[in-house]
Amino acid sequence: MEYKNLAHNRFLRFVGARLLLTVLTAFFVAAVVFFAIRAIPGDPALTILGTDSTPEERAELRIVMGLDQSILVQFFGWLGRLVTGDLGYSYSQGRPVADIVGPALENTAMLGAAATLIAVVLALVMGNLATSSIRWVRRVIDWVEAFFLSAPQYTVALLLLLAFAVLLPLFPAGGISSRGDGGFFDVAAHLVLPATALALAPGAQMGRSLKTSIATLQSTELLPALRARGLSPWRLAVHAHHNALPPMITVLGIQVGSMLGGALFVENIFSIPGLGALVVQSVSLRDYTLVQAVALLIAVVFVVVLLLADILNALLDPRIRVGRA
Fold this sequence. Notes:
mainly alpha; 2 strands
């Protein structure tokens, strides 16, 4: 019982330290996003009101947007509102940012979840086949892995769109749904091509990590010892993956950033109204508040996924939470 309490306390301290690091990272990202957006050239008031507006109208809008204040006052004011859950008001679209970001976040979350599922399945298949005893299977997997890693996501997206939506129309060419109800199978059909385009490179990267972990494990005495104890092939596979998965999960957390970055291009190629398309639109409109909210949201999703990956790794490998992995 005392050992269990000690292990539980260590795990809580590990999670607390990672959570504190996540909060500090989110604050740093908020600062970088805020000041980087302010460095974008152009006058937001002129972009919103147009060239037909008078200097007085533009000056009045700058006051309403708070752009007449010093940049530090603007930053801490925005940060204070952010803590209370207020993402601000989009003057280019005339409504609260939360009302704009909500539907876009939902679409990007569905795309990201589908891409992650495909990437994990692809990684498990490729990682296990790459350690096969059959030589030609290993060579084919190595070629496929190299191709997936070298092909840019936007190029893959264009090729998939051309092949399976134009030349061979098996899947919809764009959008998130064909009907207003957005049924499960309808949405799933629309997500197949963009999710696959996002998943190939991360899946190959995770597959390479899994292959390395399994190959390292096969060179030790663990698996022969377990086999000598009479464990079935299924139980051996479970033990092998229990030890080989933590590195792959870490790579998965990092590859989420790659998928979020790729979504900027893929969502525009497939006309998906997600965060990626919203970033492009808000930057073109010089909508500071909307750009800040979207960029910060993408960054927070990334650091939260890294936090979850660390926690999951700590659950799989107790050495991690005591700093011995």
